[in-house]
Amino acid sequence: MTAEDDAFTALTVLSDPVRRKLYRHVAASVEEVGRDAAAEAVGISRSLAAFHLDKLVAAGLLAVSFRRLSERTGPGAGRPAKMYRPADGEHTVSLPPRSYDTVGRLLAGVVEKAGLDRELQAAAKAAGAADQDAAAGDLVEVLRSRGYLPYWDGGTLRLKNCPFHALADDFRALICGMNLALIEGMAPEGWSAEVEPCPGGCCVALRSKTNFHWL
Amino acid sequence: MTGFHLAQVNVGRSVAPLGGPELADFVAQLPEINALADRAPGFVWRMVDDGGEDSTALRPDGDDDLLLINCSTWESVEALKDFAYHTDHLRVLSRRREWFQPLGGPHQALWWVPAGHRPSVAEAMGRIAILRERGSGPQAFTFRDPHSAPVAAT
């Protein structure tokens, strides 16, 4: 099978709306998700959730680990629970085929070599500020629609996903600097963006200086 | 523990002399960023000049008064990556072009040293030269092409 066939196979599994809900729930969860929690979140039975979750695993969209949910070990502790998380890897389908990632990589290489970090950040900040929805006020929703998978951690808004992951891996300073500027552009007055470690996610963390009602 | 630490060297040619207004913001942030490195998980050591605070008085190329060097050792590639890209160091890094000129060739190199070894300026510059001449390999590599630590003889 070609990479395109793989992507089609994976995405076909998501045509089922229940599976789609389950996938989104697991993808957006900060921690691994067990069958009970997934079933409850989506409003289906545990056995149905287990069936669909394992279909998502077979399609390569979710990965599995086993964990004891209780402190007990040894005989009588019961079987470890099956926990689900998003699988590594990316699936892209474009019809007709497009290759914007190739363009992105080439452009990033040239911008990096030319030392145009500041120009890129200025453009990113302007693009963020020009986002109509961000200007309208719901930063969380804007970040969600742009694929950051935002979640609240106490009074801090963290981002579980990096939408620029592969490029950021190859051009850290350039792409993370651009991303920080983009988010700062989107963030309304009163928010501050900080950089904190977030393995696998986006390391920008946002705090509201004024909106304490978020807490 | 592998018995090896990751060494990293980074050179940059500043856009103007260190004491001037162009570099003022950079210089002002150095103590905070160095302190951040010193307490970062997996940090082992960083090169300092005779002043003992940082390495800004060192000139790795005697003919180039604007070339600055920065060298440190870490427990792992991940530890260095976490500090470099997942802390407020990234903020400073993202402003690099305000203070440093883009260099034509490699400006950074990674290599493994026996745990406890503290690279000299000459050793560090030698690794950048290896990277420039031979490309990335076990003797000098980049984040894009990491090599694992040598297997310690037991």
Automatic annotation (TrEMBL), chain A:
Region of interest: Disordered: 75-95
Pfam families: HTH_20 (PF12840)
Gene3D superfamilies from the UniProt entry: Winged helix-like DNA-binding domain superfamily/Winged helix DNA-binding domain
SUPFAM superfamilies: Winged helix' DNA-binding domain
Domain of life: Bacteria
Designated name of the protein: Predicted transcriptional regulator, ArsR family
UniProtKB/TrEMBL annotation, chain B:
Source taxon at top rank: Bacteria
Name of the protein this chain belongs to: DUF3291 domain-containing protein
Domain (DUF3291) ranges: 6-145
Species per Swiss-Prot/TrEMBL record: Actinacidiphila paucisporea
One Pfam match: DUF3291
Listed InterPro entries: Dimeric_a/b-barrel, DUF3291
